[in-house]
Design a protein that fits this description.
This protein is α+β, with helices and mostly antiparallel strands. The chain contains ten helices and eleven strands. The strands form four sheets. A four-stranded antiparallel sheet has the order 1-2-5-4, with helices on one face. Strands 6-9-10 form a three-stranded antiparallel sheet. The longest helix is centred in the C-terminal third of the chain and has 17 residues.
Length: 271
């Protein structure tokens, strides 16, 4: 019988350390610059980015993460292609750089401290809208979109318009996986990363909101299967985003498993 991750502290801690290390590795840097009379964000990759992508993808295959970093050319194509869908269409390539107009609002993780249920719901609804859109991926396949790195720092919320915008598309899911599996992975990443910025007594509320807003039973069946698999083998993606200790992580898993097995509940705002 395989040793369960929750019963093996060293396995959990080792996977957490590796996940956090991969998460902290940056492929490039972003700077505010003036371009053609406008203030824009310019992002360029470090010269060692190909090595990080290569090593990260090898580890992803070994641990069955199902997420892969994009090569430089594929990344530029994907960011520019997704700009009209996810933003205002103002992201473009300039040589080997990427230029983007500043997005309105602030990262979701900054307003979660204010117990802003509206921001959480807006980000989740926007993620669901994008999941229902077919795109031509950098590998050439046309399929339903998925983010690949849908954590709470990769979505902006504008309180003036109640609008959420997802960004930072440097990785993609393994497209051999079904859309439902990939969408479930995005939703889990979002929930795991969101929980980090909230008190534990708020976790039941965000899980209930997610269960109600993203009411696709196929997605929640995929999540349940993933959670069962997590008990036997750690998921580096979720551990990298969720800076939680082993016991807190187990409590979050229990909440999610319960939600997968329950009917939709009533909408509740944060306390």
């Amino acid at each position: 019988m395989r040793l369960k991750c929750g019963h093996a502290p060293l396995l959990f801690e080792g996977a957490t350390l590796l996940g956090k290390s991969l998460y902290l590795l940056k492929l490039g840097r972003t700077r505010r610059v003036r371009w053609r009379g406008q203030i824009v964000w310019r992002k360029r990759r470090h010269f060692y980015a190909p090595l990080i992508v290569s090593v990260g993808n090898a580890l992803s295959r070994f641990f069955h993460c199902g997420v892969y970093g994009l090569s430089h050319g594929a990344w530029l194509y994907w960011e520019e292609t997704l700009s009209p869908l996810c933003g205002d269409g103002q992201t473009r390539r300039q040589g080997q750089n990427l230029l983007s107009l500043p997005m309105p609002g602030v990262p979701l993780r900054e307003v979660l401290h204010d117990e802003n249920a509206l921001a959480f719901c807006a980000a989740l609804r926007e993620l669901q809208r994008l999941h229902n859109t077919k795109m031509r991926f950098p590998v050439g396949k046309v399929d339903f979109w998925s983010h690949g790195d849908a954590h709470a720092g990769n979505v902006f919320f504008d309180a003036a318009t109640d609008r959420a915008q997802w960004f930072d598309f440097e990785s993609i899911h393994d497209l051999r996986r079904s859309p439902a599996n990939r969408h479930a992975a995005d939703l889990q990443t979002f929930l795991f990363s969101t929980a980090v910025y909230l008190a534990e007594n708020q976790w039941p509320q965000i899980v209930r909101l997610a269960r109600e807003i993203y009411a696709d039973e196929l997605i929640w069946r995929e999540i349940y299967d993933d959670l069962l698999e997590f008990e036997n083998w750690p998921n580096l993606v979720h551990l990298g985003h969720a800076h939680l200790n082993r016991h807190a992580h187990a409590r979050l898993l229990k909440l999610l498993k319960t939600a997968c097995q329950q009917d939709l509940g009533h909408r509740e705002a944060f306390h």
